Amino acid sequence: MIGPDYYITVNIKKIINPAGGIYYHINAIYYKKNWQSFISLLNEQLMAWQPSCKNIVIFGGSGGYCLKPEFVNQFDEIVHIDPDPLASRIFKWRFQKNIQINCKNYFSKGLEGLSDLKKDFPNYSILFSNILGQIPYIVKIDDNYPQSFCNILANLLNDISWFSFHDLLSLHFNKPNPALCWPVIIEGDSNNDLIDRLQQQTQLRPLKINIIDHFTEGLLPQTKSKIKLVWPRTPTSYHIIEATSQT
Questions:
Q1: Please, what CATH class does the domain formed by 12-167+214-230+241-246 belong to?
Q2: Whole-angstrom Cα distance, residue 72 to residue 77?
Q3: Which of 118, 190, 202, 239 is most buried by a 10 A CB count?
Q4: Domain residue spans in the chain?
């Protein structure tokens, strides 16, 4: 952990990368109004979560653009972990909170490194803030993924309070603002069902769609608290988000 008076050596590959970085910061500012409905619905779920510990690790929090102050302010201690070295600085500035910045690379030795979170922060709840769906961009994966990662997460999360919101699918359209009935689409029980519902609505329209599977379906332990949301990241990119938690 480092204090605010220390300098971070900036890794340009972490600032400019497909999983986030500078492009994400720019989108968060430019499309702020477009995100508000998603942010409100997400924070309803976050506020309903009742973690057993009021210290929290926010893993992959970026600048905290999806979090509201009323959620962040309820915690006594906050540890912020993100591969993007600018993220923690922006997060601290936005919320004016005395956060701990942790620069450890939990994926330096592969997926197994994430298990160290429980050892490093034994009395903390964990928020996976739109990070689990980005793992294939951060870590080299093999044919055993996501089953191997599923086992790692099961061992990590079995006796702690946690919340995750993450990409199930990202949908990239050739035309902006597609007029689709999103509530019907996200009622799908599985990724395949979601795609079928999407295709039913687009088959008679001149829309081309690039669908990306983020390999998070069934990744986390089953919980009673689970919901799907639509996040219009840009006018041509819509992400199907799953939010799930354990107290």
A1: alpha beta
A2: 10
A3: 239
A4: 12-167+214-230+241-246
